[in-house]
Amino acid sequence: MKGYLGDNMYKKIFLGFCFFSMFIFDGFLENIWIVIFTIGVYQLCINKDKKDIFKSFIASYLILNILILIFFQENLMLKELEVYSEKKSKKVVVLVYEGEDKKYNLKERAKEVYNKEGFYAIFTMAYKLSKYKDMYEDLGSSPLKNKSYTTREKLSKKLGKEYMVVNSNLYTNPYLEETLVDLVNNGHKEIILCPLFLTKGKDYDLLKKRIDHMGILKYEIKIKITDLFWNSEVLAKAYKDEIIHSIKNKEKATGVLLVGLEDKNNLEEDILFREKIKKYILDEKTYNIKIKLPLLENHKKDIIKTGAELLEYGIDSLYLVIPTSVFETIYIQYLAEYIFKELNIPSETKFYYIGPWNEKDVFIEELYKKIKLVENEGGA
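The structure corresponding to this sequence follows.
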């Protein structure tokens, strides 16, 4: 009897494993888990065996998270550093993006979750991966890689032939560490690193930590890091211009929802940048504009509530602006879709979405200035 109960418990744990796996794997593997889970549920229903289902599923969830951390996380296979005495003449600019693949990639996203969550990934991994997978299924693909190629090409043209511009990422190929090792091994000893983040925060802290962990500075490699973009007057005014120039009727009320990203950004810098945009908009005295600055993107109901308050003014048009991410990721797209879907926007109210500037000329110009500024400084 005990052996029978023990066997049944293992079967239920495996059933739970199949259930959670359906939500994080895709393609052929997803279909396999669905078939096995369906058969398992059918057998449980026939046997009318519901005992310890909840405990089994909790155990299977934790087991799945541990297995992903051990076997399904993207591994970095770094080459050995070989520093040559001969120095390359071309100046190197490394653009550092958050990074994500065009399509859902379990291994890369698992590495991202681990980098962000650390030990807590044992409890959150499968849940986070299922959220990523849902976003990709809803939106199709991420635009980030294509936009990063465009940014690199435009910046290369702006900087000229004496510079080499390369892309690198924190959470997808090519990874930052792989890019830096290749550059050093090819004789580049002076590197300008450009973190493409608006503020300090989780991504920026991880960038600094991973560079320190490489120990690359002990090889007499000079790495200069450009400033971030949260204090940019030019970008703040560009957002203001985009909104103002698209308003058709100055007399009618316009609502602007400036959404911040507290979960990943530095809170103070995020707020300061959006306040800067707000100030420039309100300086346009001839317009009737109402502005709200919701922050907690991880509490989306607060954003919906703030948006509803704007709609109560009887506005003619509503602008959803997400300015505190430099590049549009699958999550930024999802957030915009979610807000517009959940807001009860009257049919007579026009609504617009203004996302990150990324590869636009005004951003390239600002990036160019930051590179030139740090290049002329004495220190790293």
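Residues 2-22 form the longest helix (21 residues).
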